[in-house]
């Protein structure tokens, strides 16, 4: 189960405080430093890389699930259709 905060894009916010913070970057699957303005933004905003990783560590590795290994239904339909055509053509 992924933490929804970790899927949010980094938001600097409208203020100009220039505070170094960390956010989880889904494309890089790691915590990345960014500059926070000091107000607004969102909750994908951590004081340290360690805390960011503690919250978002499950997303730092790509997990292959059983569902990902199951062929899509369209493949089964194609295989069945191909088998029928082959069996019927002999």
UniProtKB/TrEMBL annotation:
<keyword id="KW-0722">Serine protease inhibitor</keyword>
<dbReference type="InterPro" id="IPR002223">
    <property type="entry name" value="Kunitz_BPTI"/>
</dbReference>
<keyword id="KW-0646">Protease inhibitor</keyword>
<dbReference type="InterPro" id="IPR036880">
    <property type="entry name" value="Kunitz_BPTI_sf"/>
</dbReference>
<protein>
    <recommendedName>
        <fullName>BPTI/Kunitz inhibitor domain-containing protein</fullName>
    </recommendedName>
</protein>
<keyword id="KW-1015">Disulfide bond</keyword>
<dbReference type="InterPro" id="IPR020901">
    <property type="entry name" value="Prtase_inh_Kunz-CS"/>
</dbReference>
<feature type="domain" description="BPTI/Kunitz inhibitor">
    <location>
        <begin position="6"/>
        <end position="56"/>
    </location>
</feature>
<dbReference type="GO" id="GO:0004867">
    <property type="term" value="F:serine-type endopeptidase inhibitor activity"/>
</dbReference>
<dbReference type="Pfam" id="PF00014">
    <property type="entry name" value="Kunitz_BPTI"/>
</dbReference>
């Amino acid at each position: 189960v992924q933490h929804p905060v970790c899927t949010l894009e980094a938001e600097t916010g409208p203020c100009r405080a220039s505070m170094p913070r960390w956010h989880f970057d889904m494309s890089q699957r790691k915590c990345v430093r960014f500059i926070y303005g000091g107000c607004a933004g969102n909750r994908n905003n951590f004081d340290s890389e360690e805390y960011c990783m503690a919250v978002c560590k499950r997303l730092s590795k790509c997990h292959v699930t059983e569902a990902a290994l199951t062929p899509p239904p369209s493949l089964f339909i194609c295989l069945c259709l191909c088998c029928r055509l082959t069996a019927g053509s002999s």
